[in-house]
Specification:
Elements lengths: L1 H7 L2 H17 L4 H17 L2 H16 L3 H4 L8 H21 L5 H33 L4 H17 L3 H55 L4 H39 L1
């Protein structure tokens, strides 16, 4: 049923009755339109028997089934800085999917593998953006590191001014905790900056992958060297995204512990 519907709505097939209708209206010869349905029917019949069209249609259905639902995936991300980056990533995925749909059968496996890696990287990018947004909100709720360090300096001044050893030790311990908190906050800021830079780099890498996939398709041949380079580049990007997520986890946990101690 899907194959028949695709054949009935195939642009080159629909053009024939469309042209027949226009000529019928322009000339007044009403029989031109029903006459155009004969070649239209023949073209539909040939389409459903064309192995290349069948493969393209089935591949297109498979691609749509595994496509990322961007509306759902980014619904909770409202950062004005992150959404444009995610939009670039979404556009890259859509463009590479289009290359798969247009590719000759010999190139479909190559471009499908690239599309799979693009979607893997894109999903990691969304996860990273979501954590980056959470991190932005957390950082907005805590004091700036310079202010925390200033508070720590004030505690040390009080410690120096008192003659009571117990009070001095308490002030010094508080100052140390504040300085640790400031250091961890700075590390989280660095991770946040890395997240933004990584997402920008990922968007640029996927845009480059789009151009490479276009070159592969336009060449209409199995360009193994170019295809291998595309696959390797995408694999590196995916691995880098995973490393960034790991760094986020490693840095955020001790930061939260130090913030609790400072309170």
């Amino acid at each position: 049923m899907k194959l028949l519907l695709a054949a009935l709505t195939r642009p080159m097939n629909v053009f024939v009755p469309g042209a027949g209708l226009l000529f019928a209206l322009a000339s007044g010869f009403w029989w031109l339109f029903p006459l155009s349905l004969l070649p239209y029917g023949a073209m539909v019949w040939l389409s459903v028997r064309d192995p290349r069209f069948i493969e393209r249609t089935l591949v297109s259905d498979a691609n749509r089934a595994s496509a990322i639902d961007w509306t759902l995936r980014v619904a909770d991300i409202d950062s004005v800085e992150l959404r444009p980056l995610l939009a670039r990533i979404a556009q890259a995925e859509a463009k590479i999917e289009a290359q798969v749909d247009r590719a000759p059968p010999s190139l479909i496996p190559v471009l499908e593998a690239s599309l799979e890696q693009v979607r893997s990287a894109a999903n990691l990018g969304v996860d990273l953006a979501r954590r980056g947004q959470d991190l932005d909100r957390q950082l907005a709720a805590v004091q700036r590191p310079d202010k925390v360090r200033a508070d720590a300096g004030g505690r040390r001044e009080r410690a120096a001014a008192t003659t009571d050893p117990a009070i001095r030790d308490e002030y010094l311990a508080t100052a140390t905790a504040l300085e640790e908190t400031a250091s961890q906050t700075e590390q989280l800021e660095q991770v946040r900056d890395r997240i933004y830079a990584q997402l920008d780099g990922l968007a640029a890498a996927l845009e480059s992958a789009v151009l490479r996939s276009m070159r592969i398709r336009v060449a209409s041949s199995d360009d193994e060297e170019n295809a291998a380079a595309l696959s390797t580049a995408l694999r590196v990007d995916v691995n880098t995204m995973r490393e960034t997520l790991a760094v986020f986890e490693e840095v955020s946990v001790p930061a939260q512990e130090n913030q609790r101690r400072a309170r």
